[in-house]
Amino acid sequence: MPVVLETISLVKQFNGIIASDNVSLQIEKGARHALIGPNGAGKTTLINLLTGVSRPTSGRILLDGEDITDLSTHKRVRLGVVRTFQINQLFSDLTPLETIGLAVSERRGQGLDWWRIVGSRPDLVAEVVEILERFHLTDVIDKRTAVLPYGKQRLLEIAVAIACRPRVLLLDEPAAGVPEDERYEILAAVAALPSDVSVLLIEHDMDIVFSFANRISVLVNGALFIEGTPEEVAHDARVKAVYLGEELVDA
Amino acid sequence: MTPPPAAVRTATEWLSARARWHPLEIVFWFAAFAAIYLFPARHLILTEIAWLGLFALSLDLILGYAGIISLGHAAFFGFGAYTAALLAKHEIIEEPVLALLISGCAAMTLGFVTSFLVLRGSDLTRLMVTLGVALVLRELANRYGWLTGGADGLQGASVKPVLGVFRFDMFGHTGYTYCLTVLFILFLVARRLVNSPFGLSLLSVKSNPLRSSAIGISVDARLVAIYTVAAGYAGIAGALLAQTTAFASLEVFSFDRSADLLLVLIIGGAGYLYGGLIGAIIFKFMQDYLSALTPQYWPFWIGLALVVIVLVGRDRITSWTTPIRLTAARLNWRALARRSAERL
Fold it and tell me: What is the C-alpha to C-alpha distance for residues B183 and B237, in angstroms, rounded to an integer?
């Protein structure tokens, strides 16, 4: 499989603290790649570097072999590098309908259209409704995002990213904080992501990681510790020692 | 997988719900134009309300929609006012409407250049930067007296008839019709703008810039764009003042003017376009009434009103009218939901 997104010796220092230590990671086309590691291992830092929220101290980031290290966040999104957030980053006063409508119209390059009224393009609305249906948001389509149940907000978080038609999707703990009874909806949504989208998943929940991923990278103290198939990672004695402990023995 | 057409229709209606004309809006504009015939004796104050309303509408575009707070919006107002006064005085452009457009463009240029100063930083930074820009412009106008008339103001401008036909008079008859027409046209444009995909993206930038950039929006570019447009609106408001009074003075740049403007918008409520207009009506009539009552102490009452308004709004300065608007919106939704249920 060809590599879609690649980092070469990525280093990020904050005031002398090394948050990313020489990370060289490859994400293949259509991958279901999980990134795990103990708290503070630098997982979110890596996502921030990949999406351009922060700039690396050294190292390169390549998308399809093209250097995107110096591109701003919104330009990377247009090239197909899209993320979700560990803590919801939604538009609290907009409805899910407006939120997805905005994301789709931006993706289609109509964001500078200041004369047409929102919703005046039938094909755009059809796509928006289709996305909302796919993420089970039709029953809250016209509610302000701020008043949605937390599980719905998590779904919207992923739906917004999908509306950007990602080529590489970076999911930052999609099920974080979701109550047990709403969890299956999130898992189903993650499992149903289009197969041509390459996914990098950060997750603490090992059930999700092992049911989802066909490739796992373990990050410890900012550096890549080991990478392999779920089988290999699950049975690696060093991984057990540094991070997973007893949890993995059952898996 | 195509969704059912009924669902798409409902979604279309909901998406365009913000843009639908409310009957009260039609009443509002009808009343404004009816005042041309009904209250000829009040045209002078109505003229002031019209340009102040436009000025406040301009602030609403950046504060209510893009979340940029400013204490120096008079910079653009004053720049437009001096441009219009200079064009008239030196008889460069004699026709007021054309001069108005040029003044607006001049203010837009200034807005574009200074917009880069408000991209970064907190609300406090923005307050200080905008304040600073207005102070700098005021002192420049003071310093270059050969051009601006300095502290005496720019006198001796004579404004020609609008479109070569409608002569300005001392009772404000032409002035009010002229200002109201300009306000109405620019209001319609602003109304399209805020209900467009661009307007929606402004709301998203105001609400969450981090996520906005994560869906491919260039946050800086959007802020530059709306700041530039708003500066143009403010410049036209200033030009209207200069044309209707045939005068421009340093006071157009003053801090008081910027601060009053914020007051006007907060009185009316930001973020729904009418706030500035309603605020201008309340502010001007209150000022008129109170200053007749207590010529020296009327700011006391304005100050008191401000404190009460902000406390009622629980210091969410942009939205003390929110409960009213939410109720109206809810009624609107309900009617829509009923209609779409019938259709299904």
Answer: 9
* Residue B344: pLDDT band with limits 50, 70, 90: very low
A74 touching B (Cβ < 8 Å): yes
Backbone angles phi, psi at A82, to 5 degrees: -125, 145
pLDDT tens-place string over residues B30-88: 999 999 999 999 999 999 999 999 999 999 999 999 999 999 999 999 999 999 999 99
Q: Is B164 exposed, middle or buried (0-12, 13-18, 19+ CB in 10 A)?
A: exposed
Give yes or no for a contact between A4 and A26, defined as CB atoms under 8 angstroms apart: no
Residue A138 DSSP code: G
What is each CA distance from B151 to A245, B138, B139, in whole angstroms?
78, 10, 10
Q: What is the pLDDT of residue B223?
A: 97
Contact list, A166 vs chain B (CB under 8 Å):
none
B336 to chain A: closest CA residue = A142
CA distance A165 to chain B (A): 10
* Residue among B8, B204, B225 minimizing CB distance to A125: B8
Q: What one-character-per-residue DSSP string does A205-241 give? A: -HHHHHHH-SEEEEEETTEEEEEE-HHHHHT-HHHII
